[in-house]
Amino acid sequence: MTVNLAELARRFQGKVRGDADVVIEGVASLQTAGPRDIAYISDRKYLSQLAGTKAGAVILAETDVAHYSGSALIVANPHLCFAQVADLLHPTPGFRPGVHPTAVVSTAAKVAATAWIGPHAVVEADAMIGEGVYIGAGCYVGAHAMIGSKTRLVAHVVIGERCVAGNDCLFHPGAVIGSDGFGFAKDGEQWQKVPQLGRVVIGDKVEVGANTTVDRGALNDTVIGDGVKLDNQIQIAHNVRIGENTAIAACVGIAGSTIIGKRCTLGGQAGVTGHLEIVDDVHVTAGSLVTSSITQPGVYSSSLKAEPVEKWRRNAARLHHLDEIVQRLAKLEERLQQHFEEQKN
Amino acid sequence: MTVNLAELARRFQGKVRGDADVVIEGVASLQTAGPRDIAYISDRKYLSQLAGTKAGAVILAETDVAHYSGSALIVANPHLCFAQVADLLHPTPGFRPGVHPTAVVSTAAKVAATAWIGPHAVVEADAMIGEGVYIGAGCYVGAHAMIGSKTRLVAHVVIGERCVAGNDCLFHPGAVIGSDGFGFAKDGEQWQKVPQLGRVVIGDKVEVGANTTVDRGALNDTVIGDGVKLDNQIQIAHNVRIGENTAIAACVGIAGSTIIGKRCTLGGQAGVTGHLEIVDDVHVTAGSLVTSSITQPGVYSSSLKAEPVEKWRRNAARLHHLDEIVQRLAKLEERLQQHFEEQKN
Amino acid sequence: MTVNLAELARRFQGKVRGDADVVIEGVASLQTAGPRDIAYISDRKYLSQLAGTKAGAVILAETDVAHYSGSALIVANPHLCFAQVADLLHPTPGFRPGVHPTAVVSTAAKVAATAWIGPHAVVEADAMIGEGVYIGAGCYVGAHAMIGSKTRLVAHVVIGERCVAGNDCLFHPGAVIGSDGFGFAKDGEQWQKVPQLGRVVIGDKVEVGANTTVDRGALNDTVIGDGVKLDNQIQIAHNVRIGENTAIAACVGIAGSTIIGKRCTLGGQAGVTGHLEIVDDVHVTAGSLVTSSITQPGVYSSSLKAEPVEKWRRNAARLHHLDEIVQRLAKLEERLQQHFEEQKN
Fold it and tell me: Most CB atoms closer than 10 Å: which of A258, B79, B86, C2?
């Protein structure tokens, strides 16, 4: 697709500074852009790169315009505008609907005529595949599962039986939706499996990263709200509920029955233990462990920063005696207080 | 399946209180149960929900019977009984034995006549597939691998060559058994791969979660004992040995050659470094890191709890100077001691 | 393959002590080796096992020769020599080139005549598969992807469109190369996806573990240098660059745009936040979190060691008040100083 700068300004509520007729065919970074690319400033620390860019135009905030002499698209939120322009110029490739001859689709499945079922995909009985859905190579859709319209399973995705994915979702390779929750009852020394009978219900506009796993509920469902974004290698346990537009970075684990609010963000490798409630607008930093419910919005952390190992080991060794250390401090305070009082008398 | 309460009491060593003829068809939670469902109290904090439940019957401990007026199945361990009833009423669906026409099964594989090999599954030469085994869609069973009777590979499971799975195991999608261990020798600046020649040997009644990985041993085998339960996204390195009935929560990593005892539990995201020995009956809390052998049963932890970030950052910054802080304390103690002694003289 | 000890000494620059004609057919551990196996001492703490071994020969360092009376291959680096001998005696099995009849290979893909495309593999249009490449069962190679010569995809590997793997690489099952980076712009309460237009470019002699994920770059590429070794379940985010011969243990996560130097090692479950630079020859201990750039080679850590939970909880509770504790200490220092000064006057 080809547009000029004026057209981009019209579509995305921006102003043109410079040549409104410059033709744009793609997006690129400041350093790699050519005369038919549009670039943007992702961080003000890169303002110095503006001087050397060969981009046909740059998306800028009003406040940064003075730093650049070329053609510019001036908008309130350059990052968002860049995302929208990129989406316009580099759309997800279309596909011809149909069923690949190597796909195994149950005659009892309901597949929209506008959907694509790729090579070696399997769609079981009573599954429903919506309009414009793309089921990539080697995906598995279990019995009675439902995939909403325009949802895309890139390749090697597993959607377990009876699980539901909404419209406009994107599932990356290796994502597993609807594996059994980890539920066992102690029976002497052994574990008796508790059958996992619930589903996973995923809303609209959800993205699920590569090799992320979402377990089905034990009795009720595991629920992922509209607009939730899950990065790679995340583990969501049974009966978790995640509120709308929450974004979770890679390698996070959320234990069973925990409820996460709306518009939260969890940093990479964060963990949340089970049966907690976290309100809306909570942000957890990378590597932190949440072990009790959070009732106030805000940023929470238990991250520790790596430092040179000799220094760290001395400090960590002290931490393992911190209680005794504080008792020494308290004793000292007491003795000194006593000493002062003796002197006063 | 349909049973009455009397029959459940007979099967699971319980007592009926109320209507022994009430017909039960399924299990459900207290809130969603209907008149043909049986529910239970998972935690005594939910006792108040008993009043409003529409369940046909409730599984209760003797001590809680007074809180409920309806029909009840009274047992010693309601959680275990619930698991058993759920298993009775909602068994894993059966299957017709056979080989799907799209499966690729070596003529040199030995597949029991009662097994099922699903669509797009691959079974290599000299693999042995036992009685009643279910190999789901897209699974891969390598050459000389052995799958014990009634074991179930849900879908997209990889069992590497020569690896062994026992009877009555359950493997969830994306599990990889028998990838190479991470073994390299330094050769100048480069790494020389050490061929990984061992197997993975998995006992009976083992459950392996979605996207969990178990590496084959370098020379000897990696061994997973009977009754071990592995949640999703766990990494077990080469030559690890895990004792019977140990349960490991999601996202745990266990480094090479470590030996874990029987009946242990590891919380989610816990880590265990290599070449350690952990005795039986050790429990590690979520997010903890075990870096030396554990010789006594008990609960071990190094978890830190997330708190509001401004508060945490102040405390964490102090931790990075804890050694100096303790030296200040020691100096203070010494000065005060000296001062007292001077005064005494 | 069968060699005698003299031949091994010749190939790997060693010296024979004892019977140079002893025939060696395989490698094994000291305990399991038989008369036609060669073993080695992986750690000097196992020196005592030398007495009981039935190995035909043992690979030893000069310094350890006195501990063993049998035939020995004496070399400078026994671990490296063992890896080389193992590779010689237990080579990766060869394969007959060709395309399995169930594979789906685009007529527009370029597949070398010496390559193997396994059952249910998919190779899309304009993909290039080099000489001697092994594409295992159920692998997916996207459009315009390039796989260098002698590279091996064991099974169930996904290489996304346009991604590049070099020569002599090894990809384990469930590895996903080229999933979308986690890039979103805030649009009110919702997230607008930023199209991920870059590639993953992987050098030569790279090993990628089971279920490891490497995201494609947003605009530019994610780059994995020659000789990099990635263990299982690692997450590499978009635009990360990893220098040559760096080795990363399992479950590590590296956030977006971070640059890791050459010859680094990251311990299991370590994390590195985004937009950092880590110089060459940096080593990070297991479970540590790197949150700022590292400019000096060395070992870095923020690992905490699990201890008995009652003890840990007392210490951790104190940590959550450490700032106040240090303030108490400072106040005490001040009061004592004041006291001493008063006394002097």
Answer: B86
Q: Indicate yes or no: CB of C251 within 8 angstroms of CB of B271.
A: yes
Is 90 exceeded by the pLDDT of residue C114?
A: yes
Question: How many Å separate Cα A243 from the centre of its chain?
Answer: 13
Name chain A contacts of C185, Cβ cutoff 8 Å.
77, 79-80, 82-83
Count other Cβ atoms within 10 Å, centred on residue C296: 9
Please give the Cα distance from B282 to B297 (Å, whole number).
Answer: 5
pLDDT greater at residue C340 or residue C15? C15
Among C253, C337, C239, C325, residue whose Cα is nearest residue C288: C253
| A86:C197 CB<8 A | yes
Which are the catalytic amino acids of C? 238
pLDDT of C44 over the 90 cut: no
Nearest residue on chain C to A38, alpha-carbon basis? C219
Residues from chain A that touch C343, judged by Cβ atoms under 8 A, are none
- State whether residue B68 is helix, strand or coil: coil
Q: For chains B and C, count residue pairs whose Cβ atoms are closer than 8 Å.
A: 228
Closest chain A C-alpha to B31 CA, distance in angstroms: 10
CB contact under 8 A, A307 and C300: yes
ipTM value > 0.90: yes
Co-location of A254 and A124 in the same domain: yes
**Which residue has 């099922």 as its token pair?**
B116
Please check whether residues B67 and B171 belong to one and the same domain. no
For testing contact with chain C, the best of B219, B288, B292, B331 (most C CBs within 10 A)? B219
pLDDT in tens, C211-222: 999 999 999 999
Same domain assignment for residues C120 and C175: yes
CB B117 within 8 A of CB B133: no
Mark whether A11 and A56 lie in a shared domain. yes
Average pLDDT, chain A: 96
pLDDT number for residue A339: 86
Per-residue pLDDT at C177: 98
- Indicate the residue type of A152: R
Residues 6+ apart with CB under 8 A from A234: A209, A212, A213, A248, A250, A251, A252, A253, A254
Contact A209 C301 (CB under 8 A): no
C125, two tokens:
């249009």
* Torsion sign (Cα): A234, A238, A240, A246: positive
Q: The domain that contains A181 carries what CATH number?
A: 2.160.10.10
pLDDT tens, C81-112?
999 999 999 999 899 999 999 999 999 999 99
Question: In degrees rounded to 5, what are phi and psi of residue A157?
Answer: -95, 145
CB atoms within 10 A of CB A33: 21
CB C10 within 8 Å of CB C29: no
Please report which confidence band the pLDDT of residue B282 belongs to, taking 50, 70 and 90 as the band edges.
very high
Let me know whether B323 and B289 are in one domain: no
**Residues C250 and C334 grouped into a single domain:** no
Q: Does the beta-carbon distance from C298 to A304 stay under 8 Å? A: no
Taking contacts as CB-CB distances below 8 angstroms, the residues of chain B near C174 are 158, 174, 176, 211, 213
B325 contacts A219? CB cut-off 8 A: no
Q: Which of B80, B118, B320 has the CB atom closest to A307's CB atom?
A: B320
CA–CA separation, A18 vs A30, rounded Å?
Answer: 18
One domain, residues C73 and C107: no
Pick from C156, C193, C319: which is nearest to A83 by CB?
Answer: C193
Of A313, A320, A336, the CB nearest to C332: A336
pLDDT in the model for residue B44:
83
| Residue B118 pLDDT exceeds 90 | yes
Q: Which domain holds residue B313?
A: 309-344
